[in-house]
Amino acid sequence: MANKSDVAKMLPKDFRQMVRKGEWTEKTADVCPGYVQANLAVVPKDVAFEFFLFCFRNWQACSLVDITEPGDPHPKLVAPEADLRTDLPKYRVFRDGELVDEPTDVRKYWRDDLVGFLIGCSWGFEGALRAANVQFRTLGDFTTNIPLVPAGPFQGPMACSMRLFKSSYDAVRAVQISSRYVPEHGAPVFMGEPEDIGIKDIYHADLYPHDDVHPRQPSEIAMFWGCGITPQLTALNAKLPIMISHKGGHMLVTDKLAAEMTVL
């Protein structure tokens, strides 16, 4: 089993091979810095257009970076050699809106009619924030009361990632920088008090907790970005016969550098 210092130096294709062999089942936050990591949502072909429409209408939460052909597990635009059935450390499998499994390999669930959607992750711009010396910390991913535009069976609230910024200067720089990273959710969707979007406890994220739970300082500014875990929330409402996603924090590492996909 590799350690974090090993995977931080790897190319994405080498890291994915390690995941495929079952040698890495941990979160991917610190692996292959600078490369785009993607959330996964896999749905049957007969609702794939409606899911695409849902993503198009709610791009800040579901910013698409690739879509596969039905039955094809290889995302040809961002990682042609990757296999969506094996190359994410952990998955979640839903049947009729209920979570039924959290495997490290979904080959036994794969079908010829399944379409894979890869959705960008806000981790893509965090490196740019740090490079610009923006002072912030991440508290995790939360369910909010921000409504989404429905499409077909897909509807529900937006999931958001939350960050606290040390000063107003840091917050402004974060908006400027993240706005360029459209495939990684772009600019924040909300700035203000967490309670205003339905978050009651910032120290216990319900979707993807973070280790940093130090008390919020009076000067810290809370900002929220759309999150690619959102499709998992819609799965609970859509009650599809099958839907496959990543487990929070266990992403597909693509071959694309985040800097390649920015908007100038």
Can you describe what's shown?
With about 260 residues, the protein is an alpha+beta fold. It folds into two domains: about 35-125 and about 230-260, 3-Layer(aba) Sandwich (PSTPO5379-like); about 125-230, PSTPO5379-like fold. Helix content is about 20%, strand content about 25%. The chain contains six helices and twelve strands. The protein has helices at about 5, 10-20, 50-55, 125-130, 170-180, 230-240, and strands at about 35-45, 65, 90-95, 100, 115-120, 135-145, 155-165, 190, 210, 220-225, 245, 250-255. The strands form two sheets. Strands 1, 2, 3, 4, 5, 11 and 12 form a seven-stranded antiparallel β-sheet that branches. Strands 8-10-7-6-9 form a five-stranded antiparallel β-sheet. Strand 3 and strand 4 (about 100) form a beta hairpin. Helix 4 (about 125-130) packs across helix 5 (about 170-180). The chain is globular and about 50 Å long.
Structural domain tally: 2
Oligomer: single chain
| Total helical elements | 6
The level of helicity is 10-25%
Q: Largest sheet, described in full?
A: 7 strands, antiparallel
Number of strands: 12
N→C terminal distance: 39 Å
CATH homologous superfamily of the largest domain?
PSTPO5379-like
Q: Which ranges are low-confidence, i.e. pLDDT below 50, for 5 or more consecutive residues?
A: none
What is the CATH fold-level name of the largest domain? PSTPO5379-like
Radius of gyration: 17 Å
What is the level-2 CATH architecture name of the largest domain?
3-Layer(aba) Sandwich
Name the CATH class of the largest domain.
Alpha Beta
- Mean of residue pLDDT? 92
Strand residues, percent = 25-35%
Q: What is the string of helix and strand elements? A: HHEHEEEEHEEHEEEHEE
Morphology call: globular
Estimated structural class: alpha+beta
